[in-house]
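ESCALATION

Customer reports they have been waiting on this structure for their group meeting. Please prioritize. Original submission:
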Amino acid sequence: MRRSCSSAADVASRIADGATLAICGSGTLLEPDALLAAIEASFLGTGHPRDLTLVHALGIGDGRGSGLERLAHKGLVRKVIGGHWSWSAKMQALARNDQIQAYSLPAGVIMSLMREIGAGRPGLITHIGLGTFADPAVAGGKCNGSATEDIVERLQIDGRTYLRYKPFKVDVAIVRGSLADPSANISLCHEAADLDAYALALAAHNSGGKVYAQVRALSDSAFVPARLVRIPGVLVDEVVVVADQRQCVAADYDPAISGEARPTSAASEQPMADDIRRIIAERAANEFIPGMSLNFGFGIPGGIPSLLAERGLQDSYWGSIEQGIHNGRMMGGAMFGAALYPQAIVTSLDQFDFYSGGGVDLAFLGMGEMDGQGNVNVSNLGGTLVGPGGFIDITQGARKVVFCGAFEAKGLDVAKVGDALQIERRGEVPKLVEQVRHITFSGPQALRNGQEVLYVTERAVFRLLPEGIELIEVARGVDIQRDVLERMNFTPIVRNVAVAGLV
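Update from on-call: job pushed to the front of the queue and completed.
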């Protein structure tokens, strides 16, 4: 069966007011930017489509106007259910000003919910999100005053508590691939990741909706090898060819990023700068034991692979990230989620199943705020909705979690003098607070799960215990009372505190 090709403008004109759109992408990976730009142009030119509900698991865009930023117009969007919001400052502002209904859920939950919707099942039932802001006992994923609908509920199965994320109809899926054949079979062969493209297409098609696929080219024959097809044509309604579609923000096309090339020599990690981030990462990396399965989060944890490489340990662990990438040289910034010379690329859904089921031995994640219960906030900072991305899915499944973050914010300056830490200027904003603004990681839930949890800063290391947060280590040169206890908004357990020299 042959499928038709269309223009991006034609696709935009067919999207009805009030429709629910599920959009694929992570940063600039699998970003269907031409279709999103056409929707924006249609709205600005005609006022339609309007009052859309947007669903996305990971942030989409380059932070400079592409991706979700194109849809961040009052009137165009009514409601957003997003896993990560950071690549669209305008959408964050709409949420902050209550001009849209803002919800946030774990990225893996959103992706898995799409699969459940496509399969006709009664939503997603999972332990992921318990005790966090996604839990209706806390906030139920609601992130501003305009968000009033209950989209999550608690339930009991065999005496255990779970969350049910409720299903809904998906009217339109916007996905992207590399090639399409005349039957609209979509290959992602030149892409950096597969993400949740198939799940979104399935959800829309089986909801009675439409699936629009942006690709770089039509195959030059009537055949795309079956093993390279990621979205079969039965799910696709229209194909839009965008000849100048880039692979990602880093390259028009690089086979090293799509996993189609073998390294000619050992891929070297980018060295980490000798600053406060490195001090924190050096201490966190000490928790590593060869043979572990590791996950590295965004920010400070992203530098740990280079430190392990400096120690000659680059081949002694299995690394992965939520975009479905296994091993290779992990990339950062708008390219977070991609790797040079990955050893395997699986769908994000498969990856999140791996995480939520306990496949990671040790996860290194960032830390915005922490409190005396061991809760961590990375999803709402300074009143700005960031979203958790895969943070909740990963931290609730990992056997051990090490959080990495500066002790204070805004103006903190430190120096390494020999193997001692010298605090040159204190930060103006405390990060170890009485109560975190948003519970992205639940300390009490981690204790119930039997997880080992550490919190690593440049001057002090803490661990989570049933009786509270214990201070277990300070950097050489740090005065425990002056530099740690008096600068915290809760009182930790202080017993036998080790003093460690900096590397």
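Sent to customer with the following note: The longest strand covers residues 468-475.
Escalation resolved.
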